[in-house]
Amino acid sequence: MSAELWEQGVIIEFNKGIPCHRAMVRSVGKAEVVLVDIENGAVSRLSREELGTVYASGGIKFLAESRDFGDIKFIDLSEAEQRETNRKYKYIKRLKENGISKITEKSARNTIEEVALELGEKAPHWQSVRSWYASFVEAGLKIQGLYPKHRFKGHRNPKIDAKVVEIIEYCAKRYYTLSQSSMASVVRNVEAKIMSHNLDHPDAPLQKPTYHTVQNRVLSGLYQTKRKGRYGARVLQAELAKALSGITTTRVLERVELDHTELDIHVLHDDYKTLLGRPNITALIDHYSGMLLGFQISFEAPSYASVCLACLNAFLPKNDFMNELKLDGAWPAHGIPSTLVTDNANEFWGKKFIAVADEIGTVFQYCPIRKGNYKSRIERFFGIVNALVLDDLPGVVRKIGKSGDGYDARQEAALTFSEFKRYFVKWVTEEYHHTPLEDSDLTPYEIWASSEECFPVPVEDKMELTTILLATATRTLNKSGIEIFSMNYDSSLLKDLLEEMGLEK
């Protein structure tokens, strides 16, 4: 089957009703597709191979009309609109199940309150539900009738002349300067320019706007722009610093922050127990939940290789990884982020890493220079690691004046590299993920679990993802195959390729 059929928002129907009758594709991974039952919101996870088999046997039907529902596709709705549509449908569905078609306060009140209790919300007014039901019936019992009404509103043109709007916007620039012109002064300037226009164009006079019209237009700009223009860049930066990053997210994997740091601890060789030194950590933090998505600890300087290994650990489920470390803690974080935020280090600017981002479908966002709060989650995480995790361990590096004169962290080192790595993961999964965030009463684990209930994360294909994230090299194909590290590799596939392409790189 065509791979492009598995697209987010597509509605499919299972002929045998397994795992459900109709479902919407919520998210698509390399190896797995997450489906959501249209009727009850139940989540199903099926492999692409399994879906392909069912489709080939004629067990799946793609409902183009269900996906479109008229002029607007369900996938075109925002996440909030999709939630609102499904919320309304839950009330309609329960009323239909209870055989209630004539909705009155007496007949529908108990059913409405029952559904509201399940959803954990205040019950809507019965007349609102009756209106939803009427729209649902009018749309031919299709979910299109439950779309938010503002989707069908036309464009609203401004009631004042476009030339007047242009004059107001021009005069508004004076208000957002350090000279701090008053609003009354801006209004007088607008009136003066309109008067001048009317004298020059008596055949097309403009109507003078009211004080409040000018004020509303002037104050409708971006807060950051207004604040910076009227009070200066320092005031704005100070406000953003107080508000942490000034960035908000609405679900997991919407924004993931990636960075490196050298850990303040010396560790030993696993076998020889000799001093190895201070390891580097490359970590990825989910901004919405604060959960550690993945990491890589090594003695290699930050590089393309360390970044890719950290991403591989982050993007894949952690079951095998936890088993290798002989740890039982749950670590549900995995998945490819929509946006990956990094600093301006060389390893992030190479063509290789940009090509990787394009292939996995992630958008790169570079942190502005000297704007540490742009990656607030990862910076705070590194601070917690150095302050809480490493502080009591042997071999921790102390700042000058924070230890006795005879203290030498290298002499005090006692943990091997593997022991420290296991200790770190145990702390992450058993303590950090279950400690409430500073700006929330919920823990990273709770926030992740709650978000994934609404937006399930598909499992990526390990082999395909590994191939994408591994380093690449170029070789010339010749009669003996290809040569790597002074060794020749050949196969029937390479011979077929040679016949087709010739001596090519």
From TrEMBL:
PROSITE patterns reported in the protein's UniProt record: INTEGRASE
All residue ranges annotated as the Integrase catalytic domain in the record: 247-452
Signal peptide: none
InterPro entries: Integrase_cat-core, RNaseH-like_sf, RNaseH_sf
The protein's name in its UniProt record: Transposase family protein
Organism of provenance: Uruburuella testudinis
